[in-house]
Design a protein that fits this description.
By secondary structure, the protein is mostly helical. It is 74% helix and 0% strand.
Length: 96
């Protein structure tokens, strides 16, 4: 891992720990672009989307992780969880 990528990763971890998920998301996007096969960066990207309530984007990122590593337990659990949330429909509730 080169120094620039390592610094981006450290920044992302710091921002995430401070609760600045939007800024952390941008850093994880940089990491994912620099290293498209980096499972951890892709998973964290998905986690930030999930934290921000961006479920379709989170689902897409989790699916990319599962495509690269089919036995990634956390990603597979999150995929099923988000699918069940997105599939939920109750006619008695307002569902836009």
């Amino acid at each position: 891992m080169n120094k620039d990528i390592e610094n981006i990763q450290l920044d992302a971890i710091k921002l995430e720990s401070e609760g600045d998920f939007r800024s952390a998301l941008e850093k994880y996007k940089e990491l994912a672009l620099a290293e498209p096969q980096n499972i951890e960066a892709l998973f964290k990207l998905a986690e930030m989307h999930h934290q921000l309530g961006e479920l379709p984007k989170a689902l897409s990122a989790y699916i990319r992780v599962a495509d690269l590593q089919s036995d990634h337990k956390k990603a597979n659990v999150k995929i099923e969880m988000i699918k069940s949330i997105m599939d939920f429909f109750n006619p008695d509730l307002y569902n836009p």
